[in-house]
Amino acid sequence: xxxxxxxxxxxxxxxxxxxxxxxxxxxxxxxxxxxxxxxxxxxxxxxxxxxxxxxxxxxxxxxxxxxxxxxxxxxxxxxxxxxxxxxxxxxxxxxxxxxxxxxxxxxxxxxxxxxxxxxxxxxxxxxxxxxxxxxxxxxxxxxxxxxxxxxxxxxxxxxxxxxxxxxxxxxxxxxxxxxxxxxxxxxxxxxxxxxxxxxxxxxxxxxxxxxxxxxxxxxxxxxxxxxxxxxxxxxxxxxxxxxxxxxxxxxxxxxxxxxxxxxx
Length: 264
Ligand SMILES: [Zn+2]
Description:
Layout: E1 10-13, H1 19-24, E2 33-37, E3 40-44, H2 50-56, E4 64-68, H3 74-77, H4 80-87, E5 97-101, H5 113-116, E6 121-125, E7 129-133, E8 136-140, E9 153-156, E10 161-165, E11 182-186, H6 201-211, E12 215-219, H7 223-227, H8 230-241, E13 244-247, E14 253-255, H9 258-261
Parallel strand pairs: 3-4, 4-5, 5-6, 10-11, 11-12, 12-13
Antiparallel strand pairs: 1-2, 1-14, 2-3, 7-8, 8-9, 9-10
């Protein structure tokens, strides 16, 4: 699908399901985020169904410049192999990059070795590093607290900066690592549920209050979140924090140009 304005920044939510039960039942779709940033297309966290959700929306994998995995968990990486195959036109066109933490690539790689040769290259994500893809740069400021090696990202395009806070337990220093006009947060839980290493609504409220983005988008909902109606929670958080909070919907398309008109 050709974007009318190649310099515009767009995020498409291929799915909004998070963690085991919401994903295995496909009560909500899963599949990650499709980013079109200053004309560079990037796929983030291709969970189960990414190939279905993306082709259904006529998104062209051969236009992707990179696939990024925040971590190796199935709901973030299940479709990485098929998406590499699609990005490289079945391996006929060596093309694109894969970014992933070391533990997604080392002892038990999430990607088949024969598919790796289809790529231009693989880059290992590390704490405190920055990377560039086409017209976009992104940083992985801090290692999250999650059962496997996990990073969130701070993206910078020609016109915008936004953060993606991937799966993590809440910890001091999480907020300070992120910023930008837009915050996308994976919020699996309604209430904290130790020892589960996922964010819950009260913690997300704290993060939004501290970072004060122009807009915050909640996604990656677990069952407790879904039952509590994420759009109602988003409404309540908007009132409580003074920040515009949106609950993502399957297939939702967010234009970052919307941020240019809203007040900070
Ligand atoms: Zn996870």
